[in-house]
Amino acid sequence: MKVVVCIKQVPDTKGGVKFNPDGTLDRAAMMTIMNPDDKAGLEAALRLKDQYGAEVTVLTMGLPKAEDVLREAIAMGADKGVLVTDRVLGGADTWATSQTLAGALRNMEYDLIITGRQAIDGDTAQVGPQISEHLNIPVISYAQNLKIEGDSVIVERQFDDRYHVLKAKMPCLITALAELNEPRYMTPGGIFDACKAEITVWGRADLKDVEDSNLGLKGSPTQIAKASDKVRKGAGEKVTLDPAEAVDYIVGKLKEKHVI
Amino acid sequence: MDFTLRKEHEMARTLFKEFAEKEVKPLAQEVDETEEFPRETVAKMAKNGFLGIPIPKEYGGQGCDPLTYAMCVEELSKVCGTTGVIVSAHTSLCCDPIMTFGTEEQKQKYLVPLAKGEKLGAFGLTEPGAGTDAQGQQTKAVLEGDEYVINGSKIFITNGKEADVYVIFAVTGMIEKKGRKIKEISSFIVEKGTPGFSFGTKEKKMGIRGSSTYELIFTDCRVPKENLLGKVGQGFKIAMHTLDGGRIGIAAQALGIAEGALDRTIAYTKERKQFGKSIAAQQNTQFQLADMATKVQAAQLLVYKAAMAKATQKEYGFEAAQAKLYAAEVAMEVTTKAVQLHGGYGYTREYDVERMMRDAKITEIYEGTSEVQRMVISAALLK
After folding, report:
1. What is the number of structural domains in chain A?
2. Is residue A25 part of a domain?
3. A184: distance to nearest CA of chain B, Å?
4. How far is A257 from A251, CA to CA, in rounded Å?
5. pTM across the whole model
6. What CATH number is attached to the domain comprising A131?
7. Range of lowest pLDDT (A183-187, A219-223, B213-217)
8. Which of A72, A188, A195 faces B49 most closely, judged by CB atoms?
9. How far is CA A30 from CA A9, A50, B21, in A?
10. Identity of the residue in A71, A185, A195 whose CB atom sits nearest the CB atom of B15
11. Could you tell me if residue A234 is inside a domain?
């Protein structure tokens, strides 16, 4: 069984977001982490490796330094890493990103592709489903649990107040939620091996069946007009009261502010 | 000379830091208050390979270097000195001597499960009358047929009752050296559960209160002669070699405690307001913090240098002694200043620096007091 996990190196928003003067993210000035949903997807794949001996390959598109996130995945237990990097791929929106990743995946063998639901720097949740469309395979999104049965995958898909149980024949694509599992840590020995591991690096020329018009900034229908950090709220007020008193206190405050 | 860490060391630090923050820090205060050995944390560390970091992969370890191991103890000790010393005693004092002096059979039988974290290790050298003076050993081992019969006791043993495998030392005879009769000391591997091997009192300690510190008692304890570690009479050499490595672990523990206290003090002095401004705005605070940070940095360089010396040099006792001496004294000084800068709050158990000051003290005492380190360093200078 071969599993490819698409992962993304994202800014660690816990450390605060920094912008360039032109409004774009100053990625160089920010700490980076593996996107949390992707990490859960990787953990799911590693459990398939533990259980069924699946081969796990991690795939990412990004700057050359995105190699770090592949090494982190290998240190957790992934077998191989593929980095797609090329100047012409820069500035990609979800459309161009999914086209790029699909172009790379056409060169790879897979039974299952796992992506995170969404990345914390864009929050679109589009790339996974778009990849499945480009590759013409089924997709099950918002996976909160998954298991393998024969040549199929059975997934619990999170829904508003319930979950759906869906079955799809492999090859298929699953988008994972951070709630899917608790990702394992890297191991010290895994880190040493990961730093020696050879990362496959692909450029534009290695992508299969993709038009130039669908790549990079030029191939991106979405253009960002302006980006800004979220407005920080005040620290708020914390009071400790009995429930009855608390209700009166809250109602009083709401009246004071003319909310009710 | 390049002081930049290699990629693998940077990644390892990230791992240890994340683990320490998530798994160890939330329990540190409780472990100190209850004096309970943090078994669940040890199980998690075992699962993640933290109990065999510098041991080669073929013996169940992680195949990393002594620097990575030192960084693990450092990061754990930043949040919990108890957890730091559990890893240090297990790795430096039990895994290392078996790795260095053990036979292939001993390595397969004992080192592999130790390095995998399936078993926990301890080391028994100290006795009521034999601390710094290791020649004062009273515990005896007598060969009877295919077994050594051990009688005596060991005190202040870290991981005492929790360990499964113990490297212990005993007198096996008298020999003549330079016209003087001296004790011949040998080293043995003893398993928990061996008839005649029991535990005495648990020590009530000032700091590192969650570490299990016990007396080991041997009463006609019979161990197979295959459990002799190294050769007969090699015990003193094994003990000294082991302590050279152990001192790097304790130096890393001291460094971590100092770093933890400094981090908390920087945060506290920025928050605490007196006379209308944060105490961090007072020049006294600024100068104290500057001195603390400079000494912590110097200690880190000595600890890392000693760890690298263990990886690349045959002898590293000098570097280890310097690192341990300095880091331990810095830990004591920095934690004391940290408590002072926290004022009355720093003297309460609500604040971590109170625990850190108590934890720091032992680093000046165990695995060779600061006075012993000065003896080692000066002996090398004057030889």
Report:
1. 1
2. yes
3. 9
4. 10
5. 0.91
6. 3.40.50.620
7. A219-223
8. A188
9. 11, 34, 21
10. A185
11. no
